Amino acid sequence: MTNHTSDPQTNNVYSPSVPELIRQMKKKGQLRFFMDAWQDYGDLAHMKFGPQEMFLVVHPDAVRHVNVSNSDNYDKLDSYDGVRELLLGDGLVASRGDLWRRQRRLMAPFFTPRAIEQHLPVFIADTQAMIDRWHGLGAEDQPIEIGDEMMLLTAAVILHTMFSTESSDDLLETKAAVETMIRYTASGQANPIKLPRWMPTPANRRYFKARELVHTYIRMLLTQRRSLPQDQWPDDLLSKMMLTRDVDTGEAMSDSLLRDESITIFVAGHETTARTLTFMFYALSQNPHVERRMVDELSSVLGDRQPTTADLKQLPYTLQVIKETLRLYPAAPIYARDVVADDEINGVFIPGGVRVMPFPYATHRHPDFWPDPERFDPDRWTPEAEAARHPYAFHPFAAGKRICLGNNFSLLESHVIAAMLVPRFQLRLAPGHQPQVVMAGTIASKNGMPMLVERR
Ligand code: HEM
Q1: Whose Cα sits closest to atom 37 in ligand 1?
Q2: Containing structural domain, residue 55
Q3: pLDDT tens, residue by residue, 351-388
Q4: Is 106 among the domain residues?
Q5: Which CATH number fits the domain that encloses residue 409?
Q6: CA of 332 to the centre of ligand 1 (A)
Q7: How many angstroms does the Cα of residue 407 sit away from the middle of ligand 1?
Q8: 7 and 45 in contact (C-beta within 8 Å)?
Q9: Averaged pLDDT for residues 406-434
Q10: Domains in the chain, number
Q11: What pTM, to 2 d.p., does this model score?
Q12: Residue nearest to atom 31 of ligand 1 (CA)
């Protein structure tokens, strides 16, 4: 038996005291902490921290059980209270039950592979703006922070596709405000000592100011559109959401739902894709033979042209590089579900009321499914290799009915951005820099990703 395999007979519980837990978390960081728990306690590691009890879900069979086969028993209850209250309201990531079902049905048509192709011109224009800016960069021996650059690019993409935002001041202000809300929510989740929100602490004040700014901006967009005849509305996601009607009831989305879904799409959709692109550039810098093959593919198909939808189908290796990046650096390395009623997974009793944590970062390194798991190898993504693998050995977008709504959007966006940037620039890690991979909501490098940008 490998130490990764959870044996129901011997499966014991990891229950450090609270001070020990805090010490371990501080020393190792969350990502290492959970990886060690997997190594030591197996594919369904059982943990108790004070009153909080949870299971890490690593084995692909268990990933399927939680997300697909018995998904009604694994809901988004109190695990999502914080994000629901502070950030996403009733938007799709945090909502549940009938409201979630109705909203998912209303929103799904805007995210089909065909529907998102409509956004290709935005992906191209925003990437071109970044290329122009990078051409204007000064000395090539000055590293730039690639994480920030990618955040700026993906924020521009999502704000343009959603709101057709034209002013760059609006873009930067909205991006900064939503990021303030995200940081505040994340710090509240991590911090066991919570001060009341009404207290005028600097953090509370910053949060409420940012939230007001975002809410006011969206209210203003709604008012502006309604003051115009419909045929003058921009053809973007917000207009589509405003115009859609429930097939059964004929109801439109309320203003508060339009706001919550807009914030949700922005939050769910920009940082995740930015992290993926950042780690793709890192992986390429460490694997020159992969980079060479990718540049060859891109140069032979595109030359100097911008990609069309048809071109993208001729760029399979580029997409394989993106998928391999999502395997080793899944932007959402862990997610949570609350167990509704007692259940059993692979012979292990799972009590109702506890939490399970599907853990893609670990599943994607499981040696039974990924030979030589730490090696960055895009050839794992040929159609034959994919077909031969366990279907739930890869779950960067979760799986089943709550699978990421924007998965196709994000893959298309990343494909276009990679296809335009990689043949034009070579990015090398700043000399001596060793990124420290951590979980900071999304996956991130604790000490940044400074890279030298050189024109090819
Ligand atoms: C690499 C990029 C992305 C990754 C790794 C990712 C990952 C995920 C994951 C793991 C979930 C499940 C979260 C949970 O259950 O708590 C999720 C949900 C979601 N994502 Fe993404 N995401 C990405 C990009 C996007 C983009 C670009 C959009 C929108 C344009 C988006 C919109 C959503 C929405 C709306 C949900 C909630 C779906 C539901 O519950 O019905 N995501 N995503």
Answers
A1: 93
A2: 13-455
A3: 999 999 999 999 999 999 999 999 999 999 999 999 99
A4: yes
A5: 1.10.630.10
A6: 9
A7: 7
A8: no
A9: 97
A10: 1
A11: 0.95
A12: 406
